[in-house]
Design brief:
By secondary structure, the chain is α/β, with parallel strands linked by helices. It has two domains: about 140 residues, Rossmann fold, CATH 3.40.50.2300; about 70 residues, Arc Repressor Mutant, subunit A, CATH 1.10.10.10. The chain is built from nine helices and nine strands. β1, α2 and β2 form a beta-alpha-beta unit. The N terminus and C terminus are likely disordered. This is Helix-turn-helix transcriptional regulator.
Length: about 260
C-alpha cells in the first residue's frame, strides 16, 4: 500500500481547504480516526497517511495540524525525535499533536518540551480528544493534568475527567477536596452562548466578536463557567457540560441572568 493512501481524493478537494493530517501506521486505526474527524471537524480536509513520508503529497498546502501516533514508543526514541524534527522542518506553521499509548506525566512533559501542542493518551474518551484537538487548532495547548492525592503520589488523568466521577482538586494546605458532579450549577443564557463558542474551539477574541462582547467580559464568563463546572480549564468545562447534557447527569432548566 502506498504511504499516502488517498491521493485521488486529495486531488478532488479544493486546494484552498485547510488540512489536518493523521499519521498512523495501522490501517484500521487510521480509518477510524479519519471518519471521526471528518464528522466532528467540518471545514477541514482530513488526510491520513502511514508515515511522515506522505507529507510530500501536501507540498504547498495549508496544513493546520498534524496528529502523529507514536504508539508505545518514548518521546526520546530516536525515530520519534527524528519524526518530530521532520514535521517542524517540513511544516513549520502546523501545530503538532501526539497520540500515545502512554499516559504518564513524564511522557507528556517530554512531548511539550519538543514543541508538541497536544498530547493525547489513547486511553481518553473520544469526546475529550475532539475537544482537545479543537483547543489546539484554536492556538491552545492540550495535555493530561497531573493530580496529586493525599499520599503525595501523582496520578496522570486526562485534561477532562469523566463527568460521571467526582473530581479531586488540590487545596492550599496540601490536602484534597472531592467535588461531586451534582455540584455543577446551571448556566445563564449568556454563559450558554459562550460555552457554545468554546465548543467550536474559538479563542476569546473571536468569541468577543461573535457575541458582541469585550474580551474582559468573555474572560469573566469563562471563569464563571469553569467554576460552575468545577473545571480546571476551558476544555474540561466543555466536555463536562456536554456529558452532563447528553444524559450523564440531568441539568435543570437554564436560569435567567
Amino acid at each position: 500500500m502506498d504511504d499516502f493512501s488517498n491521493p485521488a481524493e486529495l486531488a478532488l478537494v479544493s486546494q484552498n481547504s485547510p488540512v489536518l493530517v493523521i499519521i498512523e501506521q495501522h490501517v484500521l486505526a487510521r480509518t477510524c480516526i479519519l471518519n471521526i474527524l471528518k464528522r466532528e471537524l467540518t471545514g477541514f480536509e482530513i488526510v491520513e497517511m502511514a508515515t511522515t513520508g506522505g507529507l510530500n503529497w501536501l507540498s504547498g498546502r495549508d496544513i493546520r495540524l498534524i496528529a502523529l501516533n507514536i504508539g508505545h514508543k518514548q518521546i526520546t526514541d530516536p525515530s520519534i525525535e527524528a519524526s518530530l524534527a521532520l514535521l517542524a522542518e517540513t511544516c513549520p506553521k502546523a501545530f503538532v499533536a501526539v497520540l500515545s499509548n502512554r499516559d504518564d506525566d513524564a511522557t507528556a512533559s517530554a512531548a511539550m518540551q519538543r514543541g508538541v501542542r497536544g498530547f493525547f493518551p489513547t486511553s481518553i474518551p473520544v469526546e475529550v480528544a475532539i475537544a482537545g484537538l479543537r483547543l489546539v487548532l484554536a492556538g491552545g495547548v492540550y495535555r493530561p493534568l497531573p493530580i496529586v492525592g493525599q499520599n503525595g503520589a501523582s496520578k496522570a488523568i486526562s485534561g477532562c475527567p469523566d463527568a460521571s466521577e467526582p473530581i479531586v482538586t488540590n487545596e492550599d494546605n496540601g490536602g484534597t477536596r472531592i467535588v461531586p458532579e451534582k455540584a455543577m450549577v446551571d448556566l445563564t443564557p449568556r454563559e450558554q452562548h459562550v460555552l457554545e463558542a468554546l465548543q467550536l474551539g474559538l479563542p476569546n477574541k473571536l468569541i468577543a466578536v461573535r457575541l458582541n462582547l469585550s474580551e474582559n467580559t468573555v474572560k469573566m464568563h469563562i471563569q464563571r463557567i469553569m467554576r460552575k463546572c468545577s473545571a480546571h480549564n476551558r476544555t474540561e468545562a466543555v466536555v463536562r457540560w456536554s456529558r452532563r447534557a447528553n444524559g450523564h447527569a440531568q441539568p435543570s432548566r437554564v436560569r435567567s441572568s
